[in-house]
Amino acid sequence: MDRKKFIFTSAFTVLGLSTFGSIIKLPNGKFGGDCETTNDILGPFYRPDAPLRSNLTTPGLKGTRIKLKGKVYSSDCTTTLKGAMVEIWHCNTEGEYDNNSKDFRQRGRLITNAKGEYSFDTILPGKYLNGVLYRPAHIHFRVTEGNSKELISQIYFKGDPNIEKDPWASKDKAELRILQIIPEDTNGSLVVNFDVYLGED
Ligand SMILES: [Fe+2]
Fold first, then answer.
1. pLDDT score of 10
2. Where in the chain is the domain with CATH 2.60.130.10?
3. Through-space distance between the first and last CA atoms of the chain, rounded to whole angstroms
4. Domain 36-197: CATH superfamily, name plus number
5. Which of 45, 112, 159, 178 is deepest in the core (most CB within 10 A)?
6. Residues lining ligand 1 (ion), CB within 5 A?
7. How far apart are CA 198 and CA 201, in angstroms?
């Protein structure tokens, strides 16, 4: 739903506005909102059954290390979800996906903890051509949880010059998925935060 239209046409009380949208109290007493994380294409390189693991780095792996972390929320925009499965996959610095090996390089999935948190150690992906244009660097996500709608999406990185002409990253709905890479501490560790808001099943 278009966010402005939602706010101005809703007959319900808007309780709060955040970066992620508005939260309203529904007639049934539950909370709801338009915080749902937007989807993106699955792409051709998804492989099911990636290993359960949080560390996608290996000794000798080229690339800038990042910690990619966040929380998974339900459709009420406020309740964190433990037991959600978060799956990510991305290319290496050469723009190549591991589509065949048993190592499932730069592919992994994990289950959110009691606080709904997930965290992966990986690298910043490289880029690959889509026709004559490079796709911006991106990480694919698939998030599933028993009572929520499956999310298939992608994240991008602020300042990437290839976002503007990419058919998917340049869409309005991708705006909240273009993320800052943050120096976390004095050791130069880099962090990317991405909270996921699932839709109602
Ligand atoms: Fe991709």
1. 39
2. 36-197
3. 16
4. Aromatic compound dioxygenase (2.60.130.10)
5. 112
6. 43
7. 9
Mean pLDDT, residues 170-195: 93
In angstroms, the CA 108 to CA 124 distance is: 15
Which helix (H) or strand (E) covers residue 50, if one does? none
Q: Using the mean position of ligand 1's atoms as its centre, give its distance from the Cα of residue 95 in Å.
A: 9
Query: Cα of 134 to ligand 1 centre, how many Å?
Result: 11
- Tokens representing 111 are 């289950």
Structure token pair of residue 152: 């298939």
- Which residue in the block uniquely carries the two structure tokens 């890479």? 181
CA–CA gap between residue 155 and residue 159 (Å, rounded): 13
Q: What residues contact 44, with CB distance under 8 A and at least 6 apart?
A: none
What type of residue is 197? Y
The structure's pTM equals 0.85
